[in-house]
Design a protein that fits this description.
Blueprint lengths: L2 E6 L8 H9 L10 E10 L2 E10 L8 H4 L5 E3 L6 E3 L12 H5 L6 E3 L5 E3 L5 H5 L5 H5 L5 E5 H8 L18 E4 L9
Parallel strand pairs: 1-9
Antiparallel strand pairs: 1-8, 2-3, 4-5, 6-7
Length: about 190
């Protein structure tokens, strides 16, 4: 089984509730790191403007480039659900390393300067998952733009679309995310 996220780009208003909920749940210093981020995609010129939003966290890729790039084996992928984790005790830290961030096509691993520059990233809210709950970003989204669950179940319910405006799908990494993209979006090359 591979856990995954679903993002409905047509519903996202860019409110950042998912980002704030994640920071609060995980006690993340909002000035330093963000395990989930929302990107604003603006196109056109007045009066023909288009604005879209893209909410992303670690995509717990099927073929994670961060794992083999880590010289200390701090990055691992759980066999039972495909969730990618980082062990801060094994991480060499920002002054020495950073290979996992460079290898990630989405630049999701981040150094926390308050934790001796150890790498951190979305852990799919493992504490909530253990209680049968969904990640906090999913539960907090007021627009219902996010969902999570086993990849196969999400694809049965939402389809197999892997593209959205502003997103570059990496066939090599094969990120565990599905989308409902905006109609008429332009594929990012």
């Amino acid at each position: 089984m591979q856990m995954a996220f679903f993002f409905n780009q047509t519903r996202c208003s860019g409110c950042l509730t998912c980002v704030v909920a994640c920071r609060q749940w995980h006690s993340i210093d909002r000035e330093r790191t963000s395990w989930r981020r929302v990107e604003t995609i603006e196109e056109g010129s007045f009066p023909d403007l288009r604005v879209s939003f893209l909410s992303l966290s670690c995509l717990h890729c099927e073929n994670c480039p961060c794992i083999p790039s880590c010289p200390s084996s701090a990055m691992t992928k759980r066999e039972q659900d495909g969730i990618v984790l980082v062990d801060p005790q094994k991480c060499l830290g920002g002054s020495t390393c950073g290979h996992c961030r460079k290898a990630c096509p989405y630049a999701m691993p981040q150094f926390n300067p308050n934790q001796d520059c150890k790498m951190e990233k979305c852990n799919f809210c493992l504490d909530r998952l253990a209680q049968g709950r969904r990640p906090i970003c999913v539960e907090a989204c007021p627009m219902g733009a996010l969902d999570s669950g086993p990849f196969d179940e999400l694809s049965k319910g939402y389809g197999a679309n892997r593209e959205a405006e502003g997103f570059r799908f990496s066939e090599k990494a094969n990120p565990s995310i599905l989308f409902k993209g905006k109609d008429g979006y332009r594929r990012v090359k």
